[in-house]
Structure prediction request, 154 residues.
Amino acid sequence: MSRQSELRDRQYRELERAQRRRLWLSVLLPFAFVLAIALAFVGLALSLKSPAQLAILSDSMLTVLVLCPLVIIMFPLTIISFALVALASRWWSKSRSPLRRLEAWTARAEANVDNWLGQVDRRVLNWAVRLAPVRELLVAFEAPETKTPDEGGS
Prediction:
């Protein structure tokens, strides 16, 4: 059993590494890219001395942000998704051992229920065999069937 648990732990660690890699590629890199662009524009705006240069920069940024509203929408969603993924990763690692215990408890409960149902089946079958002669007696005292004219009887 310990060898199987070691294999499971190794597989879980590999899954965690793969999950971190996917998190980095799908959430953190786009977040860092958007943040770097925003910081670059803020730095550029602060370094410009001429109002004409600042006007050109602000006009071009306004054009980009109006033509690409997805940038405005996706940046907060990226931040929110980053926070949710970080929380989910933390919750997943904390829920691993309770889930294993629940899985073991469910397997034990299934075995107990199967055992109990097997005992019930055996007892019902034993009682059915024991009560077979009584059932034949009960049938003997029933009224004989009469056929109605609709059924083809005369």
Notes: The chain is about 85% helix and 0% strand. Residues 12 and 96 are 9 Å apart (CA to CA). The longest helix spans residues 69-130.
